[in-house]
Specification:
Number of domains: 1
CATH class: Alpha Beta
Structural class: alpha/beta
Distance between the termini: 50 Å
Strand order of the largest sheet: 3-2-1-4-5-9-14
Strand content: 15-25%
Shape: globular
Low-confidence stretches: none
CATH topology: Rossmann fold
Mean pLDDT: 94
Helix content: 25-40%
Number of strands: 16
Radius of gyration: 20 Å
CATH architecture: 3-Layer(aba) Sandwich
Largest sheet: 7 strands, parallel
Length: 385
């Protein structure tokens, strides 16, 4: 594929660059000769209470990047971080779908206001930024795309407690007798079912609306469920593979929501990094949105059973019928656009990526299982049924 490479970028700012995806991207960019600055607040939810001494993610980039400990909600931290940068990869965000439903202001402050501060400075200041890559999310789609026997392509509304209390977890659509799940493409309906999804939609829209007016190229990647070595095993709010792994390693049972047949598109970290660098380097990516995934849906019961098998540990796996308001049922990516435009194809199947992930987890210290705390918080807010 003949694609044009942007050659006048050397200095890259990664916000949230000490996180899972950001740190992996930073190391790959450094290996390609880029100079990387990281702005990160080293959140205890991800990095633990003593991150500069004990966080594997932070330690992996320590002394390899210019590190600024700060937050995207502070304009002075932004000013310091933007100086001399050619491009920005904007990852800094709160990322828990369930948590976003009861910590609304925190999610809006970090995800939306943080992005607005960046754009405000770029519009009104004197900087050299030529491109911004923003991490969007499959969560902006809400429920995935389906084909109705009677109506063709449809996008079901958020599921309601009245149906799920009866064990009816599959989405339905008015005047449709049968729905068939299909891959979600970039032109699919945007109807997020969580505050997190709304904030990611806002981030994407702000970047792609403001950037062209000031001569900056914007690119948005709608990542599916990213996993792999280095993912935080401390965070009980996001990352189903990490959450299940911590439960298994503690000898605790796994409580699977709904009927276990809900599915996601799990994409390996190396593939996500490769896709992101294509977006950073290729002119064809400018002012475009792209799905990043594998194009394959994997159900949650398969995830739990595969993890248990890989670890060689049998724990009780309970399909409980519990559910969280705001969760979607299914979504997996249509990769036609990113393949034809940027030449991206995922290299790792779920089985291959999972083996690398579980091999890595086996080398890590077992973390305290705090998952019940996150469930108790949702119960208290009436969001867990």
């Amino acid at each position: 594929m003949n694609t044009k490479k942007i050659t006048n970028m050397k200095n890259i700012l990664i916000t949230g660059g000490a996180g899972f995806i950001g740190s992996n991207l930073a190391l790959k960019l450094i290996s390609k000769g880029y100079t990387v600055t990281v702005l990160d607040n080293l959140s205890p939810q991800i990095h633990g209470d003593n991150p500069k001494e004990t966080s594997p993610l932070f330690l992996s980039i320590k002394d390899k990047v210019k590190f600024i400990e700060g937050t995207v909600t502070n304009i002075e931290d932004w000013r310091k971080a933007l100086e001399g940068q050619d491009a920005i990869v904007h990852y800094a965000a709160e990322t828990g779908t369930g948590q976003s439903m009861y910590e609304v202001q925190k999610y809006v402050d970090v995800n939306v206001t943080g992005t607005s501060l960046m754009l405000d400075l770029l519009v009104n200041g004197n900087y050299n930024v030529k491109k911004i890559v923003v991490a969007s999310s499959r969560s902006i789609y809400g429920e995935g795309k389906y084909i109705s026997k009677e109506l063709g392509a449809v996008y079901p509304k958020h599921r309601v407690a009245e149906d799920m209390d009866k064990g009816n977890f599959e989405p339905n659509y008015a005047d449709s007798s049968e729905l068939t799940l299909v891959a979600t493409d970039e032109d699919s309906k945007i109807h997020p079912s969580s505050v997190y999804g709304i904030t990611k939609q806002n981030q994407e829209q702000m970047v792609l609306t403001v950037c062209p007016t000031i001569g900056i190229a914007g690119v948005a990647f709608r990542y599916q469920n990213v996993y792999g070595p280095g993912q935080s095993l401390k965070n009980p709010y996001t990352g189903i593979l990490s959450i299940f792994s911590t439960q298994i390693k503690n000898g605790n049972g796994i409580n699977i929501f709904e009927d276990g047949k809900e599915s996601r598109d799990f994409v390996f970290i190396d593939d996500v990094v490769d896709a992101t660098i294509l977006g950073l380097e290729k002119e064809e990516a400018n002012n475009q949105v792209f799905n990043v995934g594998t194009g394959v849906a994997t159900d949650v019961i398969t995830v739990a059973e595969s993890l248990s098998k890989n670890y060689g540990v049998e724990v009780p796996i309970t399909i409980s019928g519990n559910y969280r308001l705001g969760d979607i049922r299914h979504n997996f990516a249509d990769l036609t656009k990113i393949n034809s435009t940027l030449g991206f194809e995922p290299k790792f199947s779920f089985e291959q990526g999972l083996q690398q992930f579980t091999d890595w987890v086996n080398t890590q210290q077992v973390q305290e299982d705090k998952y019940q705390k996150s469930i108790d918080e949702m119960k208290a807010k009436g969001l867990y049924k």
